[in-house]
């Protein structure tokens, strides 16, 4: 396979203002994170755990809702079903409008992304790769 680095996708720990008032009125720490349901994309998704460990300074076991849908993840966060790590470009306008808030401002996680494809030289595959790389330049952090 050939691997082409695309950049970093910034994820922010977000929740609705009402959810934050209900679960994090006294701040974000290991105890409050252990009680507040987190939204998790699937069994391989460790973003919430990584962020929680960094925010709390220790590993935290927390209740989870499994939700394998990017837009469903945002919708569930808006509805106050849990907090989650949302891609910043996807929730930028919601954060600006105050419909979502960061649990701990300035504590985003950057995840490096890459495009992988076969090394077989096919013109269509190269055109697709060029389009993916160009789209990433307009969205991802370098």
How would you explain this protein's 3D organization?
This protein has 142 residues and is an alpha+beta fold. The protein has a domain at 11-109: D-Maltodextrin-Binding Protein, domain 2 (3-Layer(aba) Sandwich), CATH 3.40.190. The protein is 41% helix and 25% strand. The protein is built from 6 helices and 6 strands. It has helices spanning 17-23, 30-35, 47-56, 70-78, 88-96, 123-139, and strands at residues 2-15, 38-40, 64-66, 84-87, 101-102, 109-117. The strands form 2 sheets. Strands 1, 4, 5 and 6 form a 4-stranded antiparallel beta sheet that branches. It has a two-stranded parallel ribbon with strand order 2-3. α3 (47-56) links the parallel β2 (38-40) and β3 (64-66). The two termini are 22 Å apart.
Brief sketch in words of this structure:
The chain is of the alpha+beta class and 142 residues long. It has six helices and six strands; from the N terminus they run βααβαβαβαββα.
Protein topology:
Elements lengths: L1 E14 L1 H7 L6 H6 L2 E3 L6 H10 L7 E3 L3 H9 L5 E4 H9 L4 E2 L6 E9 L5 H17 L3
The biggest beta sheet is recorded as: 4 strands, antiparallel
- Could you estimate the helical fraction of the residues in percent? 40-55%
Provide mean pLDDT, rounded.
94
Structural class: alpha+beta
* CATH topology category name of the domain at 11-109: D-Maltodextrin-Binding Protein, domain 2
Assigned CATH superfamily of the domain at 11-109: Periplasmic binding protein-like II
* Bulk shape: elongated
Order of helices and strands: EHHEHEHEHEEH
Question: Key terms for this structure?
Answer:
two-stranded parallel sheet; single chain; alpha+beta; D-Maltodextrin-Binding Protein, domain 2; 142 residues; 6 strands; four-stranded antiparallel β-sheet
